[in-house]
Structures are given as C-alpha cells and as structure tokens.
Amino acid sequence: MTTSTLRDSTAHRLSRLEWTRLAGPLAVLLALLLTAGCGEQEKKAAPKVHQFEINVSVSDENDSPVAEAPVLLDGKTVGFTDRDGLFEAVINEQAGAQVEVAIGKMDEYLVPEDAVAGGTLKLSKSLDGKKKPVPITLQTSVRSARKDYLVWLDTNCGKYLGSEKCQNIPVKHNDQVVAHTDEEGQAHFSFQGVPGDKVTVSLETPTYKPSADDDEDDTFVMKPESPSYDIELGLDSEVLRITEEFSDPVAAAKAKKKAKRRRSYRRAKRRKAAKKAKKKEAKKKKDDGVIDLW
C-alpha cells in the first residue's frame, strides 16, 4: 500500500502552510532588526511543521474489508480505501491545529455518524525524549444498505386469449430472465437492492407465428405487448406485487361484430316470424268467416 503526503489538502491550509514557510525567514530578519535597534527584543522561532500520519481502516458487518470508501479531510475527499479497506497518508501541519478525518457517503453502505477521527494535533515524547507527532487513526465498520425484495406477478389472459397464453411467459429483472409464469399465469422471484434505486421488471409476451395449418381461430394479438414496470425500491424489505390483464383487441372486435350480426339476425327472424304469424291469423279468421272491419 502506498502512503501519500497530503500537502495541505484544503485551500486555507495550503495558504497557511505557504505563509508559515515564508514567515520563518521574515521573522528571523525582523528579530535581528529589532535586536540591533533596541537590544531588548528576543528572537522568536517560526512555528514548526510536523508530519502527521493518517491511518484509516474500513470493514463491513462481516469484518470484510470495504474498498473504495471515500476518505474526507476537513470535509473534502482526499482519497479512497484500497481493496484491503485501508488508506494511509501524511499531512504537513503544526501541532495544535484542528483536523477532522471522516468517511464519506456510499451508495452500497450505511456509514455511522461516529465514523470521524481527529481533533487537535498533538506531539508525544518518545523514549529518547524527542517529540513525535501522534497519528490520526480512524477504524470503523459500515453496514450494507442492500435489502431483500420479492416480486409477485399475477397475469390473466381473458376469454379471447385463453389461459394457455399466460403460461410460460419469460419474466425479466433489468433485462435478465429470472422466472417464467406457471400454469396459473403466476411467477415470483427475489433479489437484493438498495433503497432509492430503480429496477425494471418486464414480461416477454408471445406473438402469433402463422403456419400452413392455421385457421382464423388460431391467430391472436396479445395486448399489452411485452409490458415493463419501473419500480423505485423502498426503505424496507417488501413484496412488490404486479398484476396484468391481457386481451386480444382484434378477437374482441371480431366477436363484437359477430354478436352484432347475430342480434340483427335474431331481430330479423323475430320480425319475419311475427309477420308470418299475423298472416296466418288473418287467414284463419277469413276461413272462419270473420270479417275484420279494421
């Protein structure tokens, strides 16, 4: 793993560090001038800049390392954890400066609010009496944001299509076939997702393929054709229910025309029968010698 040096990652810190570097020689020159002028001013040394190590370790709820976790220094991203869940760097700063190291937001994980380290940079005395910068260490565990979801699909093909048309329909999750409808036209599958994400569930409906032995009753048009459903995942694990009613508008239109013709035929037949009955009644009256004055 490579340790990088963060030379004042934020703009204000960079400006302060450059000023510190310039302030050293200027302070010495000013002290010499004051000493020469009055002899009473003491020479002041410039504040010393130290190298403070930053060590970050991120794992999940199963103690597995988490890669690509964003590391923030004073609110700005300065790097990401490696495949071992580690990030190391060095910052040039003065003792007593305020520094905050934190883990940024991630889509796949929930970052705890206490995933923060830092504060006042300090020096500690080593065994040889020398002062040594105290490292900034952040070790935290994040929790997966993924939830379990179940999709339950129920289809109905109506009287013009027949239930067999709703059987064995491929069901897709984000363009991948994950299930087929059963004899009842139903299907279900489960998956994991992140709340707020959108997924697409779609059906690949059958289409009519003519053959030489087909007659008019074999043709069909299935509507809606291969419908799809865009779903936004909720915060909790849940059952996502989808109900679809399929129809054959061409067959329905033909059936409507046939029904209309049948109704017209029945009305004409009734009128003809009534007219025939009336003639028969008139003939009977005539044969019986009854004169109809009206």
How would you portray this structure in words?
- The protein has helices spanning 11-38, 158-161, 249-287; strands at residues 4-6, 49-59, 70-73, 76-80, 86-94, 98-103, 109-110, 116-120, 123-125, 131-133, 136-141, 143-144, 147-156, 170-173, 176-180, 186-193, 198-203, 228-232, 238-245.
- By secondary structure, the chain is of the alpha+beta class.
- The protein folds into two domains: 4-144, Immunoglobulins (Immunoglobulin-like); 147-247, Sandwich (Immunoglobulin-like), CATH 2.60.40.
- A four-stranded mixed sheet has the order 1-5-2-11. A four-stranded antiparallel sheet has the order 4-3-6-8, with no helix packed on it.
- It starts with a strand and ends in a 7-residue tail after the last helix.
What topology emerges from the helices and strands here?
Elements: E1 4-6, H1 11-38, E2 49-59, E3 70-73, E4 76-80, E5 86-94, E6 98-103, E7 109-110, E8 116-120, E9 123-125, E10 131-133, E11 136-141, E12 143-144, E13 147-156, H2 158-161, E14 170-173, E15 176-180, E16 186-193, E17 198-203, E18 228-232, E19 238-245, H3 249-287
Parallel strand pairs: 1-5, 2-11, 13-19
Antiparallel strand pairs: 2-5, 3-4, 3-6, 6-8, 7-12, 9-10, 13-16, 14-15, 14-17, 17-18
